[in-house]
Amino acid sequence: MSIMQAMYSGSSALINFGEAMTVIGNNLANANTTAFKGSTSAFEDVLIQSVGTTNSGNQMQVGTGVGLASVQQNMSQGAFIATSNVTDLCIDGKGFFMVRDPELTNQMDVSGRPMDIYFTRAGAFRKDVKGDLVNSSGLVLQGWELDVDGNQKAGGTTGINLSTANNADPRATSRALVGVNLDSNTVANTSTYNPNDPATFDFSTSVRVFDSRGRGHNVELQFRKLATPDDNTWEWHAVTDETGTGDLVAIDEVNNGERVKAAPTGADYRAGILKFDSLGKLQNEGSTPLLFKFDGATEQEILFNFGDALGTPTTTTGGAITRGNADSTNDFTKRTSELLFSAGNMEADEKNTGGEGSIQMSSGFATLRLSQDGFPSGFLDKLSINPDGIVSGSYSNGQTKQLFQIAMVDFNDELALEQVGSNLYKETVNSGLPRVGVAQSGRLGAIVSNSLEQSNVDMSAEFVRMITTQRGFQANSRIVSVSDGMLEELISLKR
């Protein structure tokens, strides 16, 4: 009977409006949940019944209730809130972080999907006692380990573990860039050279170098004016206390100079000599590597580079060599031993000016620039994460290393992901396979450090939906009660 159908229609509405109120309540309950995505209920009519036809032949149909068609998440981005923790991350754009449960590694569910892999937009990560970067559930953030050049290592994604990044190994000095002004008014020093007697040299400057164990050593560079072959030639020596006894030795004079790499045959310079032109610009330099044997450390060669010498623009049968840098930046680390010590005369590099290194002017002795490429061991001081998801460590020795790159994931249909609680999602057949990539590639957004994504729940909209849902529930409860009254009247007809 139609009265009974009306009652069942009202009853279906009460059931489904109750479900809709549950969705609204869940949204409001998670209004402050990090990266929470609100949901919206959608309804559909059900069980359409034909009760006859009109005079024109059209069917007369009566609906018999309402059903819950879907509960669909709103995957729009929430607002960002700044934090003081560098490992608090949010995604500006599309994408998810990939996290792994270390307790379920390599296990598969009945559908053949990995049980240990989850996806999330909640980026509140912390370093645990093992050094892993984990979320509040202990799931490990995934990414790629980077090599010394900042490239991803082979082997695919791995858990980001910072325990191995706590220390930075030392690097022994191999090159030092020295720029000095040698006073052109200096009279030639004719005394016998003695590294421990300042009267036997005219000027000195000191550079701090590091051995293989990261210990620092002072190397003093001593310069003396020579009378021959002309007034623009200087001799230099590298002097240090290798054994720690306090006795300074010139490395180039140890054991009759066995510590010096000889200049190549045919070169127009010799080790330990700086020659300037009439304008005071460096014409050529005898900067061959010197072998140091610091006590307790591995032997090391150090090249002292005195700048971009102009060179002699001539060529011999030995072949010409280019003196100076491949560009005008004078970055001494770009100079290779093959370039510096090829056989033949030096040929002027067209970009060299002679003004980027050592000079000879009458303005008095001065140290113009001093740098070297070694450093001691260091401890991790702080982390930084850039928009590409590269995790870098800054160390107490002034070095910075790129450690990891955070992996991001995209799907064909992110709305089809399965919610599993704790702000986590799992892939489904409808979502498609996860596409793993790096931030700011393809459709993937940028990673923002020191920030968290807030819930995208609009409380005002939720309250409006709450009111309309409540009114719908009230109206359908009246249908049930009125239908009950009608049945009561019908039953009373027999009295």
Whole-angstrom Rg: 39 Å
Average per-residue pLDDT, rounded, comes to: 85
CATH T-level fold name of the largest domain = Tick-borne Encephalitis virus Glycoprotein, domain 1
How many structural units, i.e. domains? 3
Q: Look at the structure and give the CATH class of the largest domain.
A: Mainly Beta
What percent of the residues sit in helical stretches (DSSP H or I)? 10-25%
Strand content: 25-35%
What low-confidence regions span 5 or more consecutive residues with pLDDT below 50? 312-351
Structural class: alpha+beta
Secondary structure blueprint with pairings:
Layout: H1 2-29, E1 39-45, E2 49-53, E3 59-62, E4 66-73, E5 80-82, E6 88-92, E7 96-100, E8 117-120, E9 123-124, E10 126-127, E11 133-134, E12 140-145, E13 158-159, E14 167-168, E15 175-181, E16 203-210, E17 216-225, E18 233-240, E19 249-250, E20 273-276, E21 282-285, E22 290-292, E23 300-305, E24 321-323, H2 337-340, E25 346-348, E26 366-372, E27 378-385, E28 390-395, E29 400-406, E30 408-410, E31 418-421, E32 424-426, E33 435-437, E34 446-449, E35 451-453, H3 459-492
Parallel strand pairs: 15-23, 24-25
Antiparallel strand pairs: 1-4, 2-3, 5-35, 6-9, 6-34, 7-8, 7-12, 7-30, 10-11, 12-13, 12-29, 14-27, 15-26, 16-17, 17-18, 18-19, 18-20, 20-21, 22-23, 27-28, 28-29, 30-33, 31-32
Helix pairs in contact: 1-3
How does this structure look, described?
The protein is an alpha+beta fold. The protein folds into three domains: 2-75 and 458-492, no CATH class; 80-168 and 379-453, no CATH class; 175-372, Flagellar hook protein FlgE (Tick-borne Encephalitis virus Glycoprotein, domain 1, Sandwich), CATH 2.60.98.20. The chain has three helices and 35 strands. The chain has helices at residues 2-29, 337-340, 459-492, and strands at residues 39-45, 49-53, 59-62, 66-73, 80-82, 88-92, 96-100, 117-120, 123-124, 126-127, 133-134, 140-145, 158-159, 167-168, 175-181, 203-210, 216-225, 233-240, 249-250, 273-276, 282-285, 290-292, 300-305, 321-323, 346-348, 366-372, 378-385, 390-395, 400-406, 408-410, 418-421, 424-426, 435-437, 446-449, 451-453. Strands 7, 8, 12, 13, 14, 27, 28, 29, 30 and 33 form a ten-stranded antiparallel beta sheet that branches. Strands 16, 17, 18, 19, 20 and 21 form a six-stranded antiparallel beta sheet that branches. The protein has a four-stranded mixed beta sheet with strand order 22-23-15-26, with no helix packed on it. Strand 24 (321-323), helix 2 (337-340) and strand 25 (346-348) form a beta-alpha-beta unit. The two termini are 21 Å apart.
